[in-house]
Amino acid sequence: MSGEFLHLIDRAIREAEELRARRQAGLDPGTVAQPEIAIRNLRALQGRTERGDLELPTQRPSLGLVRFIGEWAEGTNLMETVREIERRWREEARYAAHR
After folding, report:
1. Does residue 84 surpass a pLDDT of 90?
2. What total number of domains does the chain contain?
3. In terms of C-beta density within 10 A (0-12 exposed, 13-18 middle, 19 or more buried), how is residue 96 classed?
4. pLDDT band at 99 (very low <50, low <70, confident <90, very high)
5. 79-84 long-range contacts, CB within 8 A, separation 24+
6. Domain coverage including residue 15
7. What are the distances in angstroms from CA 64 to CA 22, 24, 84, 98?
């Protein structure tokens, strides 16, 4: 996966951290646990990507981020970034399959 893919993951982690901070301060409805789980999952995705262990779409249809995060963060920057991560993952996998 490209550096752009890792950049998107970094951006999503920052956005999830910002959402967690807003929730901790009582500025955003919802629990702190949801962004914390997202941060943990995004960091795991980041590690798998850096190690080259990330599964391709032929092995699974989705990373599952949109479904999980969409349940509690629809309409946020985080949600838009996660959609872009999923789109880029499928796009880069298609490119790799045709090399």
Report:
1. yes
2. 1
3. exposed
4. low
5. 81/8, 81/11, 81/12, 81/15, 82/12, 84/8
6. 3-97
7. 24, 25, 13, 24
